[in-house]
Design goal:
The complex is a heterodimer of chains A (about 100) and B (about 475). Chain A has about 100 residues and is mostly helical. A two-stranded antiparallel sheet of chain A has the order 1-2. In chain A, strand 1 and strand 2 form a beta hairpin. In chain A, about 15% of the residues are buried. With about 475 residues, chain B is α/β, with parallel strands linked by helices. Chain B contains 15 helices and 11 strands. In chain B, helix 9 packs across helix 11 and helix 9 packs across helix 12. The longest helix of chain B has 21 residues. The chains are: A mainly alpha (about 100), B alpha/beta (about 475). At the A-B interface, helix 1 and helix 2 of A face helix 9, helix 10, helix 11, helix 12 and helix 13 of B.
Chain lengths: ~100, ~475
């Protein structure tokens, strides 16, 4: 499935919501479409700048390849972590069937 | 207690406990009384943990009696509901995390705890810190304690309202695009966004990872310096935290501003800005000049592109960070799903509020195939220009003075129907996050309606000393009885 309006640079809210694993009601789709058209129209102003020779900044403080010592350390308490699970079986997360 | 708990600062509470004039337990009981009598109206807290807090306070009192020391021994704090405190809920004000209980302390919390701080309750916020008014909370509306018809600002609105309303001695917030500084300004308290990398974010639920920072919301600048000093420093659990020594942030809190050069960026004093905000901020600038600072006009030419770049970068990162909320491991799960994908979609549809959905959609769009270069990559290039603007002016200035927000607090409901209008209100704060520099919000007056106005002091990366010095000298000269 292609984004219907890809050539015009407009957001297709219903399509993008599916990419984001998010069900929207018809009313939400309509409201967000209007609001986000407005927002996307605004943020496109960054296209006015001449950025040919400008390098992108991903983080304000440049960090690369941060490694820590490869040492065994205690992690979080398993039971305490699993207490937050919406569904569990034998200490593992339970989910709907993935493969038949 | 000779001092009212409502106005008490961290340093005042510490000196009272040191002199034996009160105990931590009495402070906690006093705050619980304030919360009981006022919070039904203000709505600053999502949850208050009486038993846990009294237990921690008794332990602190016992430790003090045994002669043990701690920089915050027995000081009660309120924590924004986005930071993990072991054994307390952490919902990020979202329905999708209803019922979640933290199995660990965030590093910032662990450091405060190690110095004896007591964690009283969780403060309201915009869901996942997405918003500027705390109206996007999945649970309730928080009101500005100065005037209950007005918003407290956001996203750390609960923390600012708790501090300004006298329901907390001090609080923690987080700031991704102004979420500490703007609510502090709207409620009339002090808010500090430290430099990116200064405080570990381990245990902070991520919104936009290249922008988020944790910081204090307090009644005066000295308190902000104390809390910053305790929380700062490298942490192996956050690879973006920086290995730099932590200075004594209380040392530079002098009475004057001699030998300091402060810049006024002309892009932050624009035609058509709220005249009452401009008057209050210009008054603060005059006061800084009287205190010995040299004031110079400077320019940050790419300011007008900041909101556009910010809302692309912040939503892109949020859409990735919030993918973890799928109903598998924690919080809410929608029932009746046919398969995992159906479960994710149903859970997220029911668990997220409207603003979070909007931002996930916008963020997914700007990262989607064919759009990445036009939006996210371009925004990162604009970010380079904005960062360079600041680097250039900080070559000749120790700090900058600006308004925190173009207006004082607005009425509840006034901007909720128009997201873009809400976003544009962040124009003076998002730049510090994009550039990774530090910023402080200090009260500098009130408008005709009696609502507070904030002065923003921006400083170079890892030079919190500069902005704390300016903020402290200014607030001292202005008179602390105004707080």
């Amino acid at each position: 499935m292609e984004q219907k309006t890809s050539d015009t640079g407009k957001i297709d809210v219903a399509y993008v919501a599916r990419l984001a694993r998010l069900y929207l009601t018809d009313e939400e789709t309509k409201t967000f479409q209007g609001q986000l058209d407005h927002v996307v129209g605004y943020v496109r102003k960054i296209g006015e700048l001449d950025l040919g020779s400008v390098e992108p900044t991903s983080h304000a403080v440049a960090v690369q390849n941060v490694f820590r010592e490869d040492a065994v350390k205690p992690g979080l308490d398993h039971e305490q972590v699993m207490d937050n699970a919406p569904a569990q079986v034998s200490g593992q997360f339970q989910v709907p069937i993935i493969v038949e | 207690m000779s001092l009212s708990i409502k106005k008490m600062t961290v340093h005042e509470s510490l000196s009272m406990m040191e002199r034996g004039q009160c105990t931590s337990e009495q402070l906690v009981m006093g705050l619980l009384d304030e919360i009981r009598s006022q919070d039904g109206q203000i709505g600053a807290y999502l949850t208050v943990h009486e038993e846990d807090a009294v237990g921690q306070a008794r332990m602190a009192d016992k430790a003090r009696a045994e002669g043990r020391k701690g920089k915050l021994l027995g000081v009660p704090l309120a924590i924004k509901d986005v930071l993990n405190v072991s054994g307390q809920p952490c919902t990020c004000a979202s329905r999708i995390l209803q019922g979640y209980v933290s199995p660990y302390d965030a590093t910032s919390i662990a450091r405060l705890r190690a110095e004896g701080a007591v964690f009283v309750g969780r403060t309201n916020m915009d869901e996942f810190a997405m918003g500027s008014s705390t109206e996007n909370s999945g649970y309730k509306i928080t009101k500005n304690p100065v005037n209950n018809a007005y918003v407290p600002g956001g996203s750390s609105g609960g923390s600012a309202a708790a501090v300004a309303g006298g329901e907390a001695i001090a609080a923690l917030g987080t700031d991704t695009g102004g979420s500490i500084r703007q609510p502090a300004a709207f409620c009339g308290c002090v808010g500090l966004k430290p430099t990116y990398g200064r405080i570990s974010r381990y245990g902070l639920t991520a919104f936009a990872s290249s922008l988020d920072q944790i910081g204090p919301i307090t009644k005066d600048v000295r308190d902000a310096a104390i809390l910053l000093g305790v929380m700062s420093g490298w942490d192996e659990m956050d690879s973006t935290s920086v290995k730099l020594p932590v200075p004594d942030y209380s040392a530079p809190l002098l009475a004057d501003l001699k030998n300091m050069k402060l810049g006024l960026p002309r892009e932050y004093f624009v035609k058509g800005m709220d005249p009452e905000v401009e008057k209050a901020v210009r008054g603060a600038v005059d006061k800084c000049r009287e205190l010995g600072a040299e004031i110079v006009e400077v320019s940050l030419p790419h300011t007008e592109y900041a909101i556009a770049a910010y809302y692309i970068i912040a939503t892109a990162e949020a859409s990735a960070n919030l993918a973890r909320f799928d109903g598998v491991r924690y919080g809410f799960r929608a029932q009746g799903a046919e398969d995992p994908i159906d479960m994710y979609c149903k859970t997220r549809a029911a668990g997220f509020g409207a603003e979070v959905k909007r931002r996930i959609i916008l963020g997914t769009y700007v990262l989607s195939s064919g759009y990445y270069d036009a939006y996210y990559l371009t925004a990162q290039k604009v970010r380079t220009l904005i960062r360079k603007d600041f680097e250039d002016v900080f070559k000749r200035c120790d700090a900058l003075l600006t308004p925190v927000s173009p207006t004082a607090a607005y009425k509840i409901g006034e901007k909720t129907g128009d997201p873009l209008k809400m976003y544009l209100g962040d124009i003076f704060t998002v730049t510090a996050n994009l550039a990774g520099i530090c910023g402080l919000s200090v009260p500098c007056g009130v408008n005709a309606a009696g609502l507070p106005v904030g002065l923003q002091v921006l400083g170079p990366a890892f030079r919190e000393e500069n902005i704390l010095r300016v903020g402290h000298a200014y607030e001292t000269a202005r008179g602390l009885n105004n707080r």
